[in-house]
Design brief:
Blueprint (H helix, E strand, L loop, with lengths): L2 H22 E12 L2 E12 L2 E8 L6 E5 L1 H11 L18 E11 L2 E9 L5 H23 L2 E9 L5 E7 L4 E11 L9 E10 L3 E10 L8 H4 L4 E5 L5 E3 L1 H14 L1
Antiparallel strand pairs: 1-2, 1-5, 2-3, 3-4, 5-6, 7-10, 8-11, 9-10, 11-12, 12-13
Helix pairs in contact: 2-3
């Protein structure tokens, strides 16, 4: 047999073996449920393959019931790559291995030859570093998908300030009955503990509750301002339209109209 033919035959053989292995064990679902030490916080999520579709659901302490949405096959493939690197659950170490502050469970369901196999891992500081890193990578990937879903029904306005702050960033939105203020989120920080300097940035967030037009004010000041006085003191920053499906989009037309109206009053 010629060398070229041997190489092609070997390549075909390995390809077949890889296909057979993929067919033998397939990812069905990944779920996790954890709380955080010393904080009243709990989060749970599940990603599952259902025929040719991929579904996700999540729940935190503010929710009365889980929120469900669809995932793309790309999202599920990325999750599969992470989970495939995990070994079978190992026994917990006697002494802490990591500084993990979360406590809970991480469950993987695989299908092998038509039979579901469940692996349950512990989320705590006694897991091996490799296992802990892979669990965190999978959790972060799922939470990224969840955040992308949440973003569709949220108003998010960016902010940035130096550390220590020389001013405060304030934000306000009206009408209040159309949105729920979620808070000021820190998403990026290059400051170090016990060291002066650096900066932080993130978003102010509001969850859409009802359809309508929402006006947002954002101001930087060295002095405290009651955000409720923003409509009379400051020019509107942006306007957003909430549609019937509670999806949010920025409106340049509404923004320009609101700014013009404010200037006319002045």
């Amino acid at each position: 047999m010629k060398p070229k033919i041997i190489i092609m035959t070997a390549f075909s053989l390995f390809t077949c073996i890889g296909c057979n292995m993929a067919q033998k064990k397939q990812l069905v679902s990944v779920s996790f449920d954890y709380s955080v030490e010393c904080i009243d916080y709990r989060f749970a999520a599940t990603v599952k393959k259902d025929g040719d579709t991929y579904n996700a659901s999540y729940q935190d302490k503010q929710m009365q019931k889980p929120v469900a949405f669809d995932l793309t096959d790309t999202d599920f493939d990325e999750l599969t790559k992470v989970v495939s690197k995990m070994n079978k659950p190992a026994k917990n170490r006697k002494h802490a291995v990591t500084d993990e502050s979360r406590v809970g469970t991480f469950t993987v369901v695989l299908n092998k030859k038509g039979k579901d196999i469940t692996y349950e891992y512990k989320i705590n500081k006694f897991s091996s570093e490799k296992e802990n890193n892979l669990k965190n990578e999978a959790i972060d990937l799922i939470k990224k998908c969840i955040d992308r879903h949440k973003k569709k029904s949220e108003i998010r306005v960016g902010w940035r300030q130096v550390i220590p702050p020389t001013y405060e960033v304030y934000a306000h939105a009206e009408p209040a009955e159309l949105v729920e203020y979620l808070g000021k989120f820190v998403e990026n920080s290059n400051s170090k503990k016990n060291v002066c300097g650096g900066s932080e940035s993130g978003t102010f967030r509001w969850k859409a509750l009802k359809p309508g037009v929402v006006t947002v004010w954002v101001e930087e000041s060295r002095y405290h301002h009651d955000p409720k006085n923003f409509p009379t003191l400051f020019e509107p920053f942006r306007c957003y339209i909430i549609d019937e499906n509670l999806n949010v989009r920025y409106s340049e037309e509404e923004t320009e109209a609101a700014k013009k109206k404010f200037k006319e009053k002045k």
